[in-house]
Each structure stands twice: as C-alpha cells, then as structure tokens.
Amino acid sequence: MVGAAVFTMAAGGVGLLDATALAITIGGGLGVTAMTFSRERIGRAWRLVHAALEEPGDPDEVVAALKRYARIHRLEGTPALERAAAQADDPFLRTAVMLVTEGRDDEELAAALAGELRRASTEGEAARQVVQLLGKLFPAFGLIGTLIGLAHLLRNLGAATNLAAVGPGLGIAVTTTLYGAVLANVVVLPLATKLHAHLERRHATMQMIADGALMVQRKEYPTRVEHMLRGAFGLPTRGATSAAALTLADRAA
C-alpha cells in the first residue's frame, strides 16, 4: 500500500494519473491478496519487508554477544546468564540463550533451536509468497484493465461522432498496462529481491546464534566460541593475536 501510494503521487506528478485505472490495477491486486491470505499472514509479511528495508545487522555484534554470554556462563553461572539474556535486542538470541538456562541437555537444546529455525524459515517463505503474488497480480490486473478499456472503446466506437467519445476507453486500456508493469517491476520486484536477501542473511545469523548457544551450553572458552563462529561463517578475524596469547586468554577466561 505504501508503494502504491508513492506510485500514485508519482503518476500524478507526470500527468498520468487515472483514478479508474488505479482502482482496477492497485485495488484489484490488493483485494485478491487480501482474499488469498489471512490478515495475520499479510501483517507478518509487511513486518519482514520492513525489516528488509532497514540496515542489516552486524554479525560481529552477534559474535561479541555470544562470547560475552559464554564468559558469563563460565564465571557467574546460569542466573547471571539469564539476567544478561533478558536484555538482548535480537529476539532469537534472547530465546536461544534463555533455552540454555532451562537446563536442557545438548540434544534437547539442539532440537529446540532447530524447531525455532524451521518456524522462522516457514514465516519467511510465507512472506515471500505474499510478495510474489503481488508481483503477479499487478501485471494481470493491468491486462484485465486493458481488456476492459478495449471493450469500452469498441462498444462506443460505432456511435462515436468524435475522438472524445473513445478517449476514456483508450486511456484505461493504456494506463492500466502501464501501471501494472511499473508496479511489478519498479516496486514489487525490488522488494522481493531485498526480502530474499534479508531472509538468507537472517537465516545465517540465526544458525550462528544456534551454534553459539550450543557452545555456551557446553561452557566453552569465550575466545573459542568467537573463533569457531568466525571460522564457520567466514567472518574475518579481528586483529592479529598470537596463538600463545589466545591460549593465555582462554585459561584466564
């Protein structure tokens, strides 16, 4: 709807605003989407699209947080870890560390985290289907509007005494096709691409959190948690530290 509003203002600015064509193209696409999916599903899709338009999260911050939680778990125990996890900004990070504090064994924790990952993947796929449907409906209703405009033109063509009588039908036939093509390729397609990239990035981050939570559960050394996560997900090592210094830091932790 936001994209449609921006498009409407742009069309008005260049003199291509046609209320009937807008009602057919935009109203038809949004109406069929609303009939196809539930309000909750459309709302979740909008939240994910909104998140995709924001700045991506920094994986270094996730690694630093997991390293800090590993240190807290080793030195201060489970109650301190629970208090620290409650302040996490990332909802999945907060959930994963809270699962660690429940005293589950490794297999139970891995199963619970895998379930959360599947749920997030299902929600992401549902949101992607909503955006994909919009990308198909806008050109489809543009074509439907073209057929409506041609039918209107042909019906009045025989009785027309001047070009003004056939102008409205011809205008609808042309503008609905234009609206459908622009909305699909300029608004929906870029949103779908950004959403796909966001979902892949988010899945990688959640997998990193799940692996880190398992290491926090085992009370691994904080520096080992950091280096294992960076190595597994291809993140650059921060700073140049000798092996001896890392060993001493691990023992100190």
Helix-strand sequence: HHHHHHHHHH
Strand content: under 5%
| Overall residue-averaged pLDDT value | 83
Oligomer: single chain
Structural class: mainly alpha
Radius of gyration: 27 Å
Shape: elongated
Number of domain modules? 1
* End-to-end CA span: 52 Å
DSSP strand tally = 0
**Number of discrete helical segments:** 10
Which segments are poorly predicted (pLDDT under 50) over 5 or more consecutive residues?
Answer: 240-249
The helix content is over 70%
Largest sheet: none
Set down the secondary structure blueprint.
Elements: H1 2-13, H2 19-36, H3 39-53, H4 59-75, H5 78-85, H6 91-100, H7 106-157, H8 167-217, H9 222-232, H10 243-252
Brief write-up:
With 253 residues, the protein is mainly alpha-helical.
Key words describing this protein structure:
253 residues, mainly alpha, 10 helices, 81% helix, elongated
How would you sum up this structure, described in words?
The chain is mostly helical. The chain has one domain. The chain is 81% helix and 0% strand. The chain has 10 helices and no strands. The chain has helices at 2-13, 19-36, 39-53, 59-75, 78-85, 91-100, 106-157, 167-217, 222-232, 243-252. Helix 2 (19-36) runs antiparallel to helix 7 (106-157) and helix 6 packs antiparallel against helix 7 (106-157). The protein is elongated, with a radius of gyration of 27 Å. The relative contact order is 0.15. Mean pLDDT is 83; it is low at 240-249.
